[in-house]
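Practice problem: predict the structure.
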Amino acid sequence: MRTRFILIETSHPGNVGAAARALKVMGFDEMVLVAPRYANVLRKEETIQRASGANDVLDKTRIVDTLDEALEGISHLCATAMTPRDFGPPTRSPREHFDLLLGQSASHAQTQATADTEKHFGPVSSIGFLFGSERFGMKNEDVYKCHVALSIPTNPQFGSLNLAAALQLVAYEWRLALGGFPVASPVADANLADAAQVSGMLLHWEKALIEIGFLDPEAPKKLMPRLNQLFNRANLSPEEIHILRGVAKAMIETAQAKR
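Answer:
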């Protein structure tokens, strides 16, 4: 789904750069600025520094004079507002609204949620997220143009968010609703030792435990089976088997040297 982030009358260049970075890490790249304070905001040093490598997003960013220009081609509009209005679109959290919008609400069957979406919003082929100026937020007349006012659940006693931070949260929630990105582990899954390697290590340990007097071969009880279960649960790698056998070897050598 086409996704556009619209910043209205932005006053701080750093927020524009930080917004570009926030979009890129969530896989979005369409940003429009409506009447920003500085006409050359996309070229300002602070903007580029705060973008932190998201220069391609800045290069694609458009600057327009009016909000109507920024809304062209967008079928579903989401305002962002911390303070609920007594008139205008409903106020919902991003996650709640995205579930409804995409027909994923846990409280409805899939078919019913889809029907509700089409009834309330009509077919949604593109979505725009509107963010107001840093000092004043969104104007009422701009909020009235939207289908919903998104309110990020924050501390009721201290709920004001930096513009770029609010944009990051909305972008994250929207990406999550669309399916998200896989979380890649920086460490490759280790190969596990096979049963023969574990068995050989246990025989080595049995000999070492006898040498140090911990295991009585005449009355072993269930010590070795319990150690077997312990090491099976540990899912040992061949390298770890090698370490444990090294420990057993040292135990044997130390015990024999003291005799």
